[in-house]
Structure prediction request, 126 residues.
Amino acid sequence: MASATAPESPANETVETHIRELHKKLRITDAQKSQWDSLAQVMRENAQKMKDLEKQRAADAKSMTAVDVVKSYADVIEAHEEGVKKFIPAFEDLYNSLSDSQKKIADSLFRSRARSEAKKEVSKAS
Prediction:
């Protein structure tokens, strides 16, 4: 597993960039370091799991049957679900340690992302 300071791939680089940006936007304090570190670790582990699945799918792509493709898609969905289930308690611990102004920032960031994702889904359906 790549360390936080030496990302080995674009996927790891992306999660590390996201972690740094979220840390900065939320204005994480020294007092929140423990909760933040736990959340960042969950984010890294989730990203690694997805990277591993993508690598496996790419390696098997040419030999996969249609059924295999659907099953691998189910594996990705399950990994997302497991990742979110791990993310929630770590994020909740951090969120509970945030000041009111930090919570407002977090609420805004996550609402904005939810709206953005909803718009993507609506345009796909059109």
In short: The mean pLDDT is 87.
